[in-house]
Amino acid sequence: MLKCVCLSMSSHAEPEVLLEKVGRTGVITMNRPKVLNALNLTMIRQIYPQLKKWESDNETDIVIIKGAGDKAFCAGGDIRAVTEAGKVGDSLAQDFFREEYILNNAIGSYRKPYIALIDGITMGGGVGLSVHGLFRVATEKTLFAMPETAIGLFPDVGGGYFLPRLQGKLGLFLALTGFRLKGRDVQRAGVATHFVESKKVPLLVLISLCSVFKDYQPFIYFQSLVLLNPVRLFSASSVEGIVKNLKTDGSEFAKKQTETLSKMSPTSLKITLKQLQAGAALSLQDVLVMEYRLSQACMRGCDFYEGVRAVLVDKDQNPKWNPSTLEEVSNQMVEQCFSSLGEKDLTL
After folding, report:
1. Per the residue annotation, which of 156, 291, 303, 306 is the catalytic one?
2. For residue 81, is pLDDT > 50?
3. Banded model confidence at residue 212, pLDDT cuts 50, 70, 90
4. In DSSP terms, which residues pair with 22 in a beta bridge?
5. Catalytic: which of 26, 67, 76, 77?
6. Which residues pair with 116 in a beta bridge?
């Protein structure tokens, strides 16, 4: 019989993270189902030390991370809190990204099998908690996206590492448009390593499956993904070139993506393209250092605050980007976002 030991501190309030040992398996449950298990700094500060402890614990063989409720694994970071902090110069605007990226790196370099059960919405920060681990298990309920360009940000949490490693221009397409992959397509794209029907993966069943998780390759791309051919239109060295390709093609797919890109922050689009171009040749650690610089550039700018206002606060879906066009975003402006922060750079 498996022994279950709860490691979370007792409290009258429902804990935001549940940390348990089930037999020789460490289990992390993000426990904020009412807000789709959005990741905040308190949760990061609970998950990271426990991961490090289990990594060196001879009585822990594997780690599983999952989300509470039936809707989401983790729908992203607590962006509204970061926005409010950034507006007033609160240190949360630095601390959140710094500690989140340190956690992403710990997952990417974890010395024991790390299994993310992405059964439901998995976006932004939730992607960072899953995609760098050894195994990512999708179900028919999985909905994956990196929608950051819609809020004046960029696909962070190591997006600059894993997205360009998807075959062809799929990663760039996902990064620029925020396109949503669902169900089996998440595995077909190579984001997930395995697919299991949701009803077949209660915790104890998943533990028993761990012994057969082998012969995998990270970020495999399956030719059966419907997006294979249309995504070729994203083969250009500039965002303007991609838009030109789409307009020239004129297909329904191309028209829809042209419309989508027209709604995104022009600055975010250009930062994201350079991020993925650079990240293709960098280690995960170097990508996270780069992305921390980008995060702080976004905190200094205005599009992030305007994007959050339009999409998450007022919900008018009508952001006023500044600059408002791709042509107004100069190469110099983009380069400045990648500049070193000196002593304030992320160190891993």
Report:
1. 156
2. yes
3. very low
4. 4, 25
5. 77
6. 65, 136
In a 13 Å sphere around the CA of 255, the CA atoms on its Cβ side amount to 3
Is there a catalytic annotation at residue 90? no
Q: Name the nearest CA neighbour of 149 among 5, 291, 272, 18.
A: 272
Q: How far apart are the first and last CA of the chain?
A: 40
Given the DSSP bridges, would you call strands 17-22 and 25-30 parallel, antiparallel or unpaired?
antiparallel
Q: Containing H/E element for 65?
A: strand 62-67
Q: Token pair for residue 274?
A: 């350079």
3-state secondary structure 217-245: CCCCCCCCCHHHCHHHHHCCCCHHHHHHH
Nearest 10 degrees: Cα torsion 83, 88, 89, 90: -70
Amino acid identity of residue 20, one-letter, is E
How far, in Å, CA of 162 to CA of 134, rounded? 13
Q: How distant is the alpha carbon of residue 321 from its chain centre?
A: 23
**3-state DSSP: the chain helix, strand, coil percent, rounded to 5?**
50, 15, 40
CA distances from 173 to 14, 64, 104, 283 (A): 39, 30, 23, 21
Chain centroid to Cα 264, Å, comes to 18
CB 113 within 8 A of CB 194: no
Catalytic position from the list 124, 125, 126, 128: 125
Say if CB 207 and CB 63 are below 8 A apart: no
Task: Extract the tokens encoding 116.
Answer: 């993310």
Chain centroid to CA 265: how far? 18
Catalytic annotation on 156? Answer: yes
Q: Say which of 16, 78, 148, 303 is annotated catalytic.
A: 148
Indicate whether 221 pLDDT > 80: no
pTM of the predicted protein model:
0.93
For the record, the structure tokens of 322 come out as 């500044």
The whole-angstrom separation of Cα 124 and Cα 106 is 17
User: Which of the four pLDDT bands, split at 50, 70 and 90, describes residue 194?
Assistant: confident
Q: For residue 21, how many C-alpha atoms fall within 13 Å in the half-sphere facing its CB?
A: 14
